[in-house]
C-alpha cells in the first residue's frame, strides 16, 4: 500500500523566518466559525503582520486576515477579529515565561489541516536587527555557491 504524502499547509508566514530568530514552536488549535474555515480551505488567509497576545490566561491571535466567504452572507465575521487559540495551561504558562523576557514575541508561522481541523503553528521569536538579516542572506548565498561548486566538481 502506497501512502501519499500531501502538504496540508493552507497559509504560511514566509517573512517570519527572515524577520525573527525562531526559538521554539508549538501546535495550537484555533477557534473559528464555519465560514472562516471554508475561506481558509480556499486559501484566503493571510498571516503577514500577525502576532499572538496573552490576555487573562488566554491566547489570542491578532491581525490574521481571513477574507469573508463569498457564499456566507450574514454568517461572515470581521476579517481581522481576534481569534482564540486553544492551548493547555502548561503551554500557556511557558509562553508567558518567554514573553516576559524583553524582545520575545509570539507569531503564527503557518495554518494547516490535521485530521480535518485547522491548526496553527505558533513560534516564540526574537526580532532580528538589519545586520542579522544581511548576515543570513550572505550565508545563504555562500551555501548556494558552495553547493554549486561541489556539484560541478563531482560531475
UniProtKB/TrEMBL annotation:
Signal peptide: none annotated. Pfam families: SmpB. Its main location: cytoplasm. It is found in: Cytoplasm. Keywords: Cytoplasm, RNA-binding. Belongs to the SmpB family. Required for rescue of stalled ribosomes mediated by trans-translation. Binds to transfer-messenger RNA (tmRNA), required for stable association of tmRNA with ribosomes. tmRNA and SmpB together mimic tRNA shape, replacing the anticodon stem-loop with SmpB. tmRNA is encoded by the ssrA gene; the 2 termini fold to resemble tRNA(Ala) and it encodes a 'tag peptide', a short internal open reading frame. During trans-translation Ala-aminoacylated tmRNA acts like a tRNA, entering the A-site of stalled ribosomes, displacing the stalled mRNA. This is SsrA-binding protein. It comes from Clostridium algifaecis.
